[in-house]
Amino acid sequence: MTVVIAAINGKGGAGKTTTLMNIAGEYALRGGRVAMIDMDARNNLMKWWTDSQEKDSQPEGIEVYSHKTARGFEHWMQENASAFDQVLIDTPGEDTSIVDPVIASSDLVISPIQPSKREVLGAIDSFENVLRINDALGRECRHGVLRTRITVTVRHTELYRKIRPIIEDKVGTYLFRTEVFERNVYKDIHNGIGTLQMLEVTEAIAKARRETRALVEEVDTLLGGASMAEHAA
User: Fold this and answer.
1) Contact 102, 6 (CB under 8 A)
2) Which of 5, 139, 185, 195 has its CA 20 to 30 A from that of 45?
3) What's the CA gap between 142 and 29, in Å, rounded?
4) Rounded Cα gap, residues 78 and 67, in angstroms
5) Are 106 and 141 in contact (CB under 8 A)?
């Protein structure tokens, strides 16, 4: 059965594309057939894919498609989604009518955030949209907030310390235990060198790989049936 995961946050630059690229690479490494859909007008995902092709470093097991309209996306899902084990969707960095049909097709929505008020509010909006569409369609799409581009300095900020009580206690959605740290390798991947999992293992890449494996294991657990409230406990 195809698993559909979307990265949604109303603010651009939150780390959606990088998150999906790393998740896709991990699933492909496990032998999965992964489709990635670029719905963002910035085309970051397609640029990475094209650059990887030009450098002969496209990863096996991954295909990337571009759809910028809800109609095109829905048609692709109806005709093609069942051929893949995972479908990962990169959405625009602003609120658009595209988001609702994406949520309606998803099993999990991940809202990446950096510790900023605007991104936290964007993640909360995404969670409320998931609840709204679940209620309207009788679905059980899950939602989780992922902290990205974390540094030691960021961990000492007041907003960072407030993220958990805001997201879990006040809002009531899931906060990933895995954090994605600011790493040069994540930036390098966008230059068309394939996926993290394809790179020669150095100490820095090994740390990023461990981080990504932990994230994907957490994603798998979330999709395994336990409620978000149980995971947050």
Assistant:
1) yes
2) 139
3) 24
4) 13
5) yes
In order along its 233 residues, the chain shows pLDDT tens digits of 899 999 999 766 678 999 999 999 999 999 999 999 999 989 999 999 999 999 999 999 999 999 999 999 999 999 999 999 999 999 987 767 889 999 999 999 999 999 889 999 999 999 999 999 999 999 999 999 999 999 999 999 999 999 999 999 999 999 999 999 999 999 999 999 999 999 999 999 999 999 999 999 999 999 985 433 344 44
CB 196 within 8 A of CB 208: yes
Hey, what domains does the chain have and what are their CATH numbers?
3-232 (3.40.50.300)
String of DSSP letters for the chain: --EEEEE--SSTTSSHHHHHHHHHHHHHHTT--EEEEE--TT-HHHHHHHHHHHTT-PPTTEEEEE--SHHHHHHHHHHHGGG-SEEEEE--SS--TTHHHHHHH-SEEEEEE-S-HHHHHHHHHHHHHHHHHHHHHT---EEEEEE-SB-TTGGGSHHHHHHHIIIIIII--EE-S---B--HHHHHHTTT---GGGS---HHHHHHHHHHHHHHHHHHHHTTT--HHHHH-
Q: Which amino acid is at 73?
A: F
